[in-house]
Amino acid sequence: MTVAMRVRDRDTLRAYVRLMRLSERGLAARAGVGHATVNHLLSGRRETCSPETAQAIEKVLGCAGGVFFEPVRRTTTAPGKGLAPARRR
User: Fold this and answer.
1) pLDDT in tens, 15-60
2) Strand 48-49 to strand 69-74: parallel, antiparallel, or no bridges (unpaired)?
3) DSSP-assigned beta bridge partners for residue 70
4) Burial of 81 (0-12, 13-18, 19+ CB in 10 A)
5) What is the Cα–Cα distance from 3 to 62, expressed in whole angstroms?
6) With 32 labelled, which of 5, 9, 49, 62 sits at a CA distance of 20 to 30 A?
């Protein structure tokens, strides 16, 4: 199981990025992450990112950790592996 960071409120994050007069590309460059990552987080195509990405974005925005992102537990399952079948008694 790995930990990911989820955007708390996408609309608020987008509004704050605009308030800071940053473009998606500018935010991405300053945070050291890909433009696609920022675009997907702001557009809703993606809900989560790594803790490092969340921390870098919040640092560029000048706010404390946890303002725009919250931790979520994410389970990883190997491809082709589903739930184990129920045991028969």
Assistant:
1) 999 999 999 999 999 999 999 999 999 999 999 999 999 999 999 9
2) unpaired
3) 6
4) exposed
5) 23
6) 9
**What is the C-alpha R_g of the chain?**
16
Q: Residue 67: how many CB atoms within 10 A of its CB?
A: 16
Show the tokens assigned to 39.
């675009």
Tokens representing 30?
A: 């300053």
